[in-house]
Amino acid sequence: RNGDSTEAHGLAMEAWTESTERGDESRQQAAGMELARLELGTGRPEGAVKRLLGALALVQTRGGARQAGVVYEGLIDCELSAGRPQEALRYCGAAENSAAGLGEFSASASIKAALLTARVQALVQDIPDLRETVARIEKISDESADRLLQARSAMDAGISCIEADPSLATSILDRGLLRA
Length: 180
Description:
The protein has helices spanning 2-22, 25-41, 45-62, 65-81, 85-99, 106-123, 127-143, 147-160, 166-179. The chain is mainly α.
């Protein structure tokens, strides 16, 4: 297994180097994301954070707000893996701010970012803030005319808080069933 990850890391590093030399920022970002995933998988969250921050800088210079959400999700995973939930919450806030300006994709991206926040809050058992975040998710989905988005966000929100607050999860899932 270690040989496989070493080979994968070498290939991803080669792709990153080649894309950097060619000035292909899109492939450089993808290779950086893959390197981060591999580093996180081998227990090196600090290296993964460094790669992800580089990918985030590339995304921000190109105005890729939709792609920023994926990078923020990786940063959140890294910080949680390193046992730093407060840093993860900081990236959750940045993800939510980034999602707010996405026009027609704003509702979906905002819900996804808020679900990341709910995941961290549930993990650290911050029930009052978790309830507030879930209410924000419901408000965003209710403002959408998309019933599938409403049902899906209710299901995801219910799942995200089922261990931390089972009664909240049950009520959210019930409302989601009514929307479906």
